[in-house]
Amino acid sequence: MKLVSQPRLTIVVPCYNEEPVLQASAQVLNGILQKLVTTNQVRSDSKILFVDDGSQDTTWDLITQLGHQDAVFTGLKFSRNYGQESALIAGMEVANHYSDLIITIDADLQDDPHIIPDMVAQSQQGIDVVYGVRNDRASDSWFKRTSAEGFYWFMKKLGVELVPNHSDFRLLTSRVVTALMTCKETNPFIRGIIPQLGFPSARLYYKRQPRQAGESKYPLHKMIQFALNGILSFSIAPIRMVLYFGLLVCGGALAMLIWILIQHAHGDVVTGWSSIMLSVWFLGGFQLIAISIIGEYVGRTFTEVKHRPRFIIQTDTYSKTFKSTEPTKFRLTHQTVTK
Q1: With contact defined as beta carbons under 8 Å apart, do 82 and 54 qualify?
Q2: Domain boundaries, given as residue ranges, for the chain
Q3: What is the pTM of this model?
Q4: How many helices (H) and strands (E) does the chain have?
Q5: Which fold has domain 2-234+309-338?
Q6: Cα 87 to Cα 174: distance, rounded to the nearest angstrom
Q7: Tens digit of each residue's pLDDT (9 = 90 or more) over 166-208
Q8: Tens-place pLDDT, residues 246-259
Q9: How far is CA 166 from CA 11, 18, 71, 116, 195, in A?
Q10: What is the DSSP letter of 334?
Q11: Which of 17, 51, 148, 257 is the most buried (most CB within 10 A)?
């Protein structure tokens, strides 16, 4: 798929309490976008779209001020906090009506935005998905680095295709976003869904920068929740693991029964409260774990079948910036012109 005219680019930036970094990030992204415009790589009406995920500080006020200063800055405001995945989906869904290329990047700009021109250049060569990938994790703590490596290893064993050391910094063409929007999960795991779509992809490596201000929006409990969401969204392997472990426990119990019968036959019987309680606590704990894992899947099914909206947009200053009610996109070609 090659571009036959200038594409319209939208940079989608999810925001949650980003007051300390928003002004600086906006200027950096705008500078990069204007260079793309002046070099005729993207259209002059390309936009930066901030998605306010129910921030409790002045994030939305800053987004509004930026929009008054320069029409390149636009925003979506959620009615409440829905989470980063929902913010990304909302931004891409709204932008896809008017954009040919969409880049998503976190507001703290720890992911290097200066490779954005290289991403756009890759799309000009027919690449539909360009992943921004960290070239190392030297700046992470030992725990974070080890847990991340363990997560990617475990997901690979489950048969889930992920791009290691890739977060949510990526370029997608319009047809990829259109395909992504057909996935209607209430709790989508975007990093796992996009590789499964199967479009041509490439990777660009960069060095991750330290956060300039504010604090991380992914403390330990959110990292654990994110990892569980990825595992439970793509595999029933945990349930099968519980089944196999249960069979192993039953086999051990049977072996113990045979051993007890042999001991009785020899008259060598030692009654012990500790051994009984150990067995009770072990099996009881295993049953609770098994019920919890199954309950997670049942709960997710319960959430999905209700078909409640993944997010509610309270304010949209992006769509109104385009005068025409009919979205205008450049044409794509893949041998013959297709869309």
Answers
A1: yes
A2: 2-234+309-338, 237-305
A3: 0.74
A4: 10, 11
A5: Spore Coat Polysaccharide Biosynthesis Protein SpsA; Chain A (3.90.550)
A6: 18
A7: 888 999 999 999 999 998 887 788 888 898 898 999 999 998 8
A8: 667 766 766 766 77
A9: 17, 21, 31, 15, 12
A10: E
A11: 51
